[in-house]
Amino acid sequence: MSKIKITLIKSLSGRLKSHQACAKGLGLKKIHKPVEVIDTPENRGMINKINYLLKVEK
Asked: Measured between alpha carbons, how far is 58 from 36 in angstroms, rounded to an integer?
């Protein structure tokens, strides 16, 4: 299984509840703290939904 490294680069405060839930589901808690997640269609969907808040690396 391949992994994707994602980093939260913008704050979650004031965002839609569904976008905050996506970040929580991906394991993102603090800004500039990278997290590695498995590259699955479910995770890709959450990443695409909040892509304006993230930096994504392979």
From this structure: 9
